[in-house]
């Protein structure tokens, strides 16, 4: 008897879904499952070779899947603007947006093309800019927007006095901040969307712990080999001990994106010991995500930093 956790994804024919970070790992599983359910899946990717490999993987499993690539580098606001313009020019409403892509714990401080600390700029601000640029299409599709945060957001804070880690940089602290900011923005998006009648809902999810490329060798991030933590996670995952796999880690975001009984502001993650693996289910908001005033500050500050395209996020 197969005891691996799974869910049923409802039919999604006629729904356009956008999944960032969908070229490998958890994002690829999310994209594949959405495509298998009939969604028209768009994968915005930075690396075209990885994107092409992802298309092959999905089509090998589901030959009739509708899935296509677009170009996107979340660490460049110019690239985000080009991607969102392309999508608006295509004009197709978006019913699901999964903000899944991210970078994790560069050992030394790196910056984006726009001078932001790499994790804050990519994981958080890049996705804020995506939401801003796609807002008309999200409204047209009455979309669910899913923000993939992390159990790292259980602790930490927004360093208002050193947001970009210029005075003091710690990779894990900066990673946690980026995911806390993403979560606070996601919660505020749900509240603002309801107040302004946008017709979209906003949800949080976290994958628990699973062996993905986040902690793999990333020379461009000054990490020449996979971390010790990544090797340990891989061993535990293969033996079915405590942590999840890419397949199970994708389930909370899939629930948030597709389950019929999910309300805006929901937070889903694994329900196993320590919430690092197991069946997906509702989670209590982490302490750093419970401050509505902090969420409003993150919203305002983020919109100012990205120079929102005035499509909605910056409106009064």
UniProtKB/TrEMBL annotation:
PROSITE patterns: ADH_SHORT. The keyword Oxidoreductase applies. InterPro entries: NAD(P)-bd_dom_sf, Sc_DH/Rdtase_CS, SDR_fam. Signal peptide: none annotated. SUPFAM superfamilies: NAD(P)-binding Rossmann-fold domains. Pfam families: adh_short. Keywords: Oxidoreductase. Belongs to the short-chain dehydrogenases/reductases (SDR) family. NCBIfam families: PRK05854.1. This is SDR family oxidoreductase. It comes from Rhodococcoides kroppenstedtii.
């Amino acid at each position: 008897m197969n005891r691996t956790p799974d869910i049923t994804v409802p039919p999604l024919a006629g729904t356009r879904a956008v999944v960032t970070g969908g070229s490998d790992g958890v994002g690829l599983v999310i994209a594949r499952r959405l495509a298998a359910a009939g969604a028209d899946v768009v994968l915005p990717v930075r690396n075209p070779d990885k994107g092409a490999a992802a298309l092959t993987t999905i089509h090998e499993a589901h030959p009739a899947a509708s899935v296509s690539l677009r170009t996107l580098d979340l660490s460049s606001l110019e690239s985000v603007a080009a991607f969102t313009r392309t999508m608006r020019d295509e004009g197709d409403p978006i019913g699901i947006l999964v903000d899944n892509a991210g970078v994790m714990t560069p050992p030394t401080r790196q910056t984006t093309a726009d001078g932001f600390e790499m994790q804050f700029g990519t994981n958080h601000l890049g996705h804020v800019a995506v939401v801003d640029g796609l807002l008309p299409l999200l409204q047209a599709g009455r979309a669910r927007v899913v923000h993939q945060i992390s159990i790292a957001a259980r602790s930490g804070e927004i360093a208002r006095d050193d947001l970009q880690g210029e005075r003091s940089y710690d990779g894990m602290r900066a990673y946690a901040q980026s995911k806390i900011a993403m979560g606070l923005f996601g919660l505020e998006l749900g509240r603002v969307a309801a107040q302004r009648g946008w017709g979209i809902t906003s949800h949080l999810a976290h994958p628990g712990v699973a062996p993905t490329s986040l902690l793999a060798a990333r020379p461009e991030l000054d990490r020449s080999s996979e971390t010790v933590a990544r090797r340990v996670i891989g061993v535990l995952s293969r033996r079915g001990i405590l942590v999840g796999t890419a397949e199970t880690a994708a389930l909370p975001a899939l629930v948030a994106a597709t389950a019929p009984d999910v309300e805006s502001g929901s937070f889903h993650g694994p329900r196993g010991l320590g919430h690092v693996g197991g069946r997906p289910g509702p989670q209590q908001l982490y302490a750093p995500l419970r401050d509505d005033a902090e969420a409003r500050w993150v919203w305002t500050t983020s919109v100012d930093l990205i120079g929102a395209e005035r499509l909605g996020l910056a409106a009064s």
